[in-house]
Please model this.
Amino acid sequence: MANKSQPFEYAPAPESRSIVDIKPSYGLFINGEFVDGTGKSFKTISPSTEEVLAEISEASDADVDLAVKAARRAYTRVWSKMSGAERGKYLFRIARIIQERAREFAVLESIDNGKPIKETRDVDVPTVAAHFFYYAGWADKLGYAGYGDDPQPLGVAGQVIPWNFPLLMLAWKIAPALACGNTVVLKPAETTPLTALLFAEVCQQADLPPGVVNIVTGAGGTGRAIVSHPDVNKVAFTGSTEVGKAIARAVAGTDKRVTLELGGKAANIVFDDAPVDQAVEGIVNGIFFNQGHVCCAGSRLLVQESIADEVLAKLKRRMKTLRVGDPLDKNTDIGAINSAEQLAKIRELSEIGEAEGAERWSPKCDLPSTGFWFPPTIFTGVSQAHRIAREEIFGPVLSVLTFRTPKEAIEKANNTPFGLSAGVWTEKGSLILWAASQLRAGVVWSNTFNRFDPASPFGGYKESGYGREGGRHGLEPYLKNDGAR
Ligand code: NAD
Ligand code: MN
Model:
C-alpha cells in the first residue's frame, strides 16, 4: 500500500502468480505417492487476501502410522544400505530442481505465508537450495565430520516445523537427516502447507526412493501423533517454547533423540561508537524482516544512552520508507501477518505495552482492508519488567531500552529466559569479542543481523531449546552417538 509520507510513489510491480498451479485439494505424501488421508480436511488461506487457496488433509493417527511404516521400510531396505555418495546424488538433484523451480517456490511461499516476494526470492528459496547443496556434500564424507570413522544413522526422523519459514525449516530438517542416512516423516504448519507439498513433487521428480521422505499435513494433533509414535527414533521440532516443552515431556523416558529450536527475545546492542546508519539498517532488518516472524529477531534494541536520540530519529525516518502491502509486489518490504491468531497476539501484547506505560510509535501507513496486517511499530521508554521486553511478540514490534555501560548492556541482554541470538554494533573488534563471550546466545552477529549460512550452526540456550542445525554440528543430531566427537 502507498505510504503517504513518501516523497514519490512507486508504480505497482506485481510478480505474476501464473507460474504456480495450486490444486483445489491435496492428499498426504506417503511412500512416494499422494494418497487420500482418513482424517478431516482444513483450508489454507492467503493471509494477504483471506482467499481460500486449497483444501488440505488432516492426517489421522492411522495416516501417521502408515507414513512411519513407509519411512521404516525405506530406511531398512534402501536408504540406510545406500552409499553416502549415492545419497549425495539425490540431494544434489533435489537442490538443482529447487533452483530450477525457484520462482515457483518463491511465489507459492509468498501467497501461502504472506511474506514479501523480495524475501522468498532472495532469501528463503536460495538458502533452501544452498542447504541441500551443503548437506549433499557431507553425505559421502561423514567419516570425516568428527563423529567416528563410520557414523551410523538413527532410523526414522519425525519432524515438525512452524509457519514462519516453511520451506527453509523443511530444508533445515530434511537435508541433514537424509545426508546421514535417515528417512523422514515431516509435518508442515497448518497455515503454510503448500511449499512442503510442492517439495513432495520435487522428491518424485528426483526419483527419490519411495518412503524416504513422507509429508503429512495437519495441526497439533498430527504433530503429536508423529512425535509420540513408538517407531520414530528422532524428533526434531521448531516452534513455540510451550509446544517444545510438551514434546520434551512426550519423549521423556523413551530412547528417542530430540532437538528443539524454540523462541527468542534477542538483544540488538548498539554501542556509542557504532556506524549509526549501518546500525539503523541492521535494526530494521533485525525486527521487520519477515514481519518479525523470526525466532532470532532482534526484538529488543539496547542502545547506548548517549546516542539514543540520534538512533531513534534515524530509525523513525527509515521506518517511514518501509512499504507494507501486497506480498507479491516486488517493492514490498513488509507483507501480511501469517494468521488472524498471530495478529490477535501481536495486538494484545502491543496493547499491554501501552497499558504498562511504554510509548508506541508507527509511521503512518494505509493498510489493506482485507487480510491480516500490522504496521511496523516501536516502543520507547520500555523497562525490563515490561511484558513487551520479556515475551516473544513474533511480529513487527520493537522494544527499545537504553544502557550506559557495556556491562549494563550485557546484563540486560542476558536478562531473559531465551538465548537464541544477539547483535552487537560497534567499531571496536575487542568490544565485539568481549560481548560475544559474555552473551548467552547461540548466535551473535556483529555489525550485521539475520544472516543465515548453511555452513554455520544455529540453535539456542535456555528456553530457546537445544541442539544445533546447520554446519558440521547439524549432522550430529542425526547420527548414533558413539561417544566420538
Ligand atoms: P506452535 O509451536 O504451536 O506450532 C509449531 C508446529 O508444531 C506446528 O506445525 C504445529 O502444528 C505443531 N504442533 C502444535 N502442537 C503440537 C503438539 N502438541 N505436538 C507436536 N506438534 C505440535 O507454534 P505456533 O502456534 O505456530 O506459533 C506460536 C508461537 O510460537 C509464535 O507466536 C512464536 O512465539 C513461536 N514460534 C517460534 C518459531 C521459531 O522459529 N522458533 C516459529 C514459529 C512460532
Ligand atoms: Mn496459508
In short: The chain has a mean pLDDT of 96.
